[in-house]
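sorry for the late reply, my laptop died twice this morning and i had to redo everyting from scratch. anyway the thing you sent over, i finally got around to it. pasting the sequence first so we're on the same page, its 144 residues, then the predicted structure underneath. double check i copied it right bc i was rushing
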Amino acid sequence: MTSDTKGIRNVHTIRVLWTDCDPAGITFYGNYYRWMDEAAYYLFRSVGIRWEDWRSRFDALGIPLISAHADFSSPTKMGDELTIESRVSEWGRSSFTITHRFMNGDRLAASGWEKRVWCKGDPANPMTFASAPIPDEVRAALGG
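ok and here's the structure:
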């Protein structure tokens, strides 16, 4: 985890596995969305906010994804090591956007973003999901 003028960012590394590739031997695009989800988890974890503790710590259900986007700049293949840099790039009252950059060495492989909403409600009844203000503690931890 590092901090800069754009807030807290987290960097972690993954290796592209055989199961991540399509028959042409390049990374299947859907994996980037999975990796963005994982990177969001690691971003929160890097500042001491474990998703597993949201209910007990914040009385929250989580941060459902409401939109996602990715741009693919260069192909990756089995064995490549990707460095993923993630940070919150935009804050709203109850929503926020996390941006991700996937580097393959010094080459940009992909970039993308996820928009998520802080939610409360009854976990036994999905119809009670409702957006709620992002707690100040969470904003401060992530540089917001």
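Residues 30-46 form the longest helix (17 residues).
thats about all i looked at so far, will dig more tmrw
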